[in-house]
Specification:
This protein is an alpha+beta fold. The protein has 2 domains: 306 residues, 3-Layer(aba) Sandwich (D-Maltodextrin-Binding Protein, domain 2), CATH 3.40.190.10; 246 residues, Dipeptide-binding Protein, domain 3 (Roll), CATH 3.10.105.10. Helices cover 26% and strands 22% of the residues. It has 16 helices and 27 strands. Strands 1-2-7-8-10-9 form a 6-stranded antiparallel beta sheet, with helices on one face. A 5-stranded mixed beta sheet has the order 22-21-23-17-24. α2 runs parallel beside α4, α9 runs antiparallel to α11 and α15 packs antiparallel against α16. The chain is globular, with a radius of gyration of 25 Å.
Length: 580
Amino acid sequence: MRTTVRGFLLFCCTVAFYADRPAAGQDLQVKNLTGARGGNLVLAATSDPSTFNRLLATGLANLVITDRLSGDLVHVNRDTLQVEPSLATSWESDRTGRTYTVRLRRGVRFSDGTLFTADDVLFTFQALTDPKVGSTLAGQMETDGAYPAVTKIDDFTVKLVFQRPVGMGLRMLDSIPILPKKRLSKIYREGRFVSAWGPTVNPQNVVGLGAFRLKEYQRGIRVVLERNPYYWKKDSTGRKLPYLDTITFLIIPDLNSEALRFQQGELDLVSTPSLNPENYASLRRTRSNYTLRDLGPGLSVDYLWFNLNRGADSRGKPHVDPRKMAIFQSADFRRAVSHALDRASVARSVLLGLGVPQYGLVSSGNREWHNPGIPRTEYNPALSRKMLAGIGLRDSNGDGILEFGGGKHPLEISLLTSRGHNVREKTAEVLRDNLAKVGIRLTLQLLLPNEIANRFLGSFDYEAILFGFTPTDVAPDLQTDLWYSGGPIHFWSPGQKKPAFAWESTVDSLISRLVTSTDPKVRRASFDQAQSIWSAQLPAIPTVASNILVGWSNKLGNVRPSILAPHLIWNAEEITKRAK
């Protein structure tokens, strides 16, 4: 296993994390890693980059490119899912779990040859937390509405002080790029930081600590990265990384075209979402000079949920008919709906068997944190009908549709889902058929993803939604905006001033214990209990998790697939490519 992590050591209530202590100016050596230098790795990007500044990048295509240009202090190994040193060689916390002392790797240089020091770390955090910059990564560093105070101890040591203990430790620093102060400080002071590394930038002006640097960008055609000659890692034989000479990203917006070009040997890598079940099945039939792998369920789950917002619009009209709201608020109703869903049919017919039914808050693909002991509402339409009758929903006129409001109104619910998302559209059709069998009529409405997000996060103008949520890491601490009742993406009822239900108050307390405790056993027990409560209440009903599908050319070496995105190129500095 190629990893530099050594573990957690406890000394007199101080938690310390150490890698092998490098001599001054020495690169980080990756154990058990060998390979030959040379080659151009070719893969697709579904869209043009909007920026080459990782601090500002959004969208998977842009992130995959900018991550290759950047280096972080600590890094989550996408293979082991564990934290390991990167630009930081070690760190330790005090007995409170609030203060971390971080020691930086000496002798490291940016891609333009300038020395990396603590000043670059301080500058990065200044820009990261500046609301005028608006970095999407800022939320990773926020605890209870505040950012840590970052101070310089010496040129190669910094201190981070948080408002409260941080249960996950410095895992939150993963993917936060350290930026060159000398190159960007003047631009930042002049208010030009956001546009400085835009698409028209001179490649020589884009400077980072990643394994590659920008060589060329042709809009709508390609992005080319070249080896960073100053990169600070080497393999087990002492050879400097990366092995590859270049990486070429071809701009290919159409996912089916990407899979076809991989099949024809024009691309070296392909993965979810471009490699969907249909493309995967086709590639399996014609497999020749490439390897395909089904990694099992990923972290992304599609949920069906009902609008539990009790408020009203600007005209005073309730977001949901109060009679329907009373139904939606019933946990028995939500459990009955869950029992009516034939998840196995969705996995079989929609995902061609390349998906797994889900019953809880966290995908079963998250082997680090998923609680296998949660209550499971398995497919049982007879039980569903019995439960619906138990809360007063009956078909009094024999037309096959249950009535509410004293038997006067058919139970018809409008369901929103994503237009153009083939899996969700087909899943919605299966759910409509499932619920019709227990007397609930679903009417489908297809909207663009941003329109759906506005409905459940802004206007609250909807009854039910089928939509997905994709965590960026296995650690639940990074999704507290969803778990907390007052969280801005607590999607069935976001931004609550106080918990609407007693069970939500209990979950809030458990999540608080999770994120503040530094005891792994307490953290595990707290989140397991939160998952059990959530699965019993089902404020959002899980459907299926699609499997992560990947493929790569047999010319490549040191490929280590991960359930975390990007699934294949996360260790680009280690990948090799044979000429033939």
